């Protein structure tokens, strides 16, 4: 059995070590007569009794230091710190060392289980449970945890119900914005909580709420109902309705609500194309941060909001209050045959039924994939352009899906072959082709093939690909149930045990995420993505995955408690874990 040592280190006023007799008044050898309880989880308070224990004010469990709660001559109390393991208790004073006659047993901490999907805001996570409830962890200074406090939590806490009564139930989907969450209920209503800086909670106010509040109906009448899906933008949310219409609320500095260039704390119906009537026959909505695009039942796309960089795809660079149709490549007709719309920072890509991809909007780093870096003028294309094939040959084809991350400037496409092609920003190795793009526009304007971990071939057997927590580290879910990540990794986002803190601060080839407490690759992963029922979630340099067991593993930056393992990583770097940690159950 591994030994657990408890070492009490006295910091003397003169420096690290001083006179035992002058500081403690005794040079008698310490002894331990008993301790209680005899077992417990991390965080359990242990009372140690004995003789000559005076002066211990810092406790070291193995390599993990923590402050003692009190230290008297006959009694010392201390909380079992994160990282403790079963073994004998040792108390060290300057006069000697005392060892317990029996071992303290560290009980395992139960895992968070029954997770359906995870959504992140900017500094925390919320998990929808198979029971229909929601547990949140991480940053909570603006009420993001929904538990009635403004505290951060390294342990998942249950979101309260309306009016702080009971717990939130009947949740089928979560959507997020910076410091806000909204929950779509099975009833078709929506409850929100968090910062509410621009009225994005939809309850008619602009004050934070530490517990969920009901989104009101249009014009502040009743409550919003008949919602089928939610999408978060920049300080705003949009809801697709059973009628096929769209209602939006929150910030509207760029017209994202589709009616007025003002913020609204209650939902407003999105106008129809060119301002006629209201928008109808919408399948789903996607946000690039400064605006929204709606995929219509006709498999065409209408966009509204901020038009910088050509983000609306209608041939100009202006913002629009009402939706405008995205035109076809070359600027003629309308874009059609669209299966899905995904977003990057200031732009969009459409995955077509043909297996091709067309993109529009910002293209500074080559994220339009058409061989052009848009580094002057409007810095993008206001009409869709066809993404070229790997290396610039022909057009990219056989595309099943494309990554979606509005904070990123990199796209990765999953091909029908199970391989990946990426384009755009590549400074930290985000393109996964073995190259750090350190000159020119810091990226590739045509797709490049993601290579295997040893660089000998191409990465294959990919089931899904997402852009990870930092926005600069894609991760691929493999058919084997493992996960490979690449790109930025200074905070341990790649999950392979390494902090990439020098050079380009990342890996330009995929590396395997390893298992909790081990060195073998992580396996049994069911979901990776961000913000959707069938995705992993990434946030502020942290990543979480859902396992086939419905448990959750997280890694990366964790100073706010984002890893959900009951520990806040702060004090001295690294401020997180470069290997996965299990998210623990509520109340542990």
Number of helices: 1
CATH architecture of the largest domain: 7 Propeller
CATH hierarchy, class of the largest domain: Mainly Beta
Could you report the average pLDDT, rounded to the nearest whole number?
89
- Please count the beta strands (DSSP E, at least 2 residues each): 43
Instruction: Give me the CATH superfamily of the largest domain.
Output: Regulator of chromosome condensation 1/beta-lactamase-inhibitor protein II
Oligomer: single chain
Percentage beta strand = 35-45%
Helix content: under 10%
Query: Radius of gyration from the CA trace?
Result: 27 Å
The biggest sheet, with number of strands, parallel, antiparallel or mixed sense and barrel status, is: 5 strands, antiparallel
Sum up the overall morphology in one term. globular
What CATH calls the topology of the largest domain is: Methylamine Dehydrogenase, Chain H
How would you characterize the overall build of this protein?
By secondary structure, this protein is mainly β. It has three domains: 6-106, Sandwich (Immunoglobulin-like), CATH 2.60.40; 109-270, Regulator of chromosome condensation 1/beta-lactamase-inhibitor protein II (Methylamine Dehydrogenase, Chain H); 398-588, 7 Propeller (Methylamine Dehydrogenase, Chain H). It is 1% helix and 41% strand. The longest helix is centred in the first third of the chain and has 5 residues, at 20-24.
